[in-house]
Amino acid sequence: MVVESSELDKPATRIKAVLFDLDGTLLDTEALSDKAILEVLGPSLVPARVWKECQEDNVRMPWELKKQLLGLRGSEWAPKVIKYAHEKWNVPLDDTRTAMTVQGLWNGWEEALNRLCEEVEACPGAAELVTQLARVGLPMALATSSRQSAVDKKRKRHGTMFQHIQAIVPGDHPAVQNGKPAPDIYLEAARQLGMDPTECLVFEDALSGVRSGKAAGCTVVAVPDPRFSSEEKQAFQDEADVVVSSLWDFDGRRWGIDVHLAKRTAG
């Protein structure tokens, strides 16, 4: 979805900095995240039918579960996975031989994901958008639910993109007492850049992140997963300032930002 041209004439807050979510927004880690969760659970906990379906679906978690996890910290998404596995797959909660703990799943997932991160690719348009925002002199920060150790692994292949990002606020930063959708992480990211949150533009792929950015007072551009239904995407329309189908569709002119990737690629 692209902003209508008539919307470009509307008065808009002057943007002085950009704050990015990481997973699913700048880096395409979501498929790797699914693979890591399934690796930790393993075929002993995941029913054979589901395991086969997930393998055939390019190792993706069932979407009805996955969409509940987007944007959350491990301490918040791991209980949802365990609850789902118990209710849908009959994984026992009280058998110490097979039951998965929140911390055990989180730690195992992070270890597996760290191994897989050498494969991670940038999301479509991410590197180009960051480069163009740097060209026009906008400072940038990351505000990610991932822990710092995970961010360090994920960024290794993308030094060219990350060299333009001045601050990184991970989910385990001391100032982030509450995860998304609370505003903590975006308030801290804005503070580290020396900006008022109302002068910051946020990019998010998860509804929890959209709500976090809005709660902090930022302007928010949503890039929702295409697997969301039309009804589910309406929630992004209702809560974000702008919704785009890809970072390639971002048009910064409504905020006085000389960045319009679609126009550059068309030319």
TrEMBL record:
**Pfam families recorded for this chain?**
Hydrolase
Q: Which InterPro entries match?
A: HAD-like_sf, HAD-SF_hydro_IA, HAD_sf, PGP-like_dom2
One GO term in the molecular function aspect is:
phosphatase activity
Name the chain's protein.
Uncharacterized protein
Species of provenance: Phaeodactylum tricornutum (strain CCAP 1055/1)
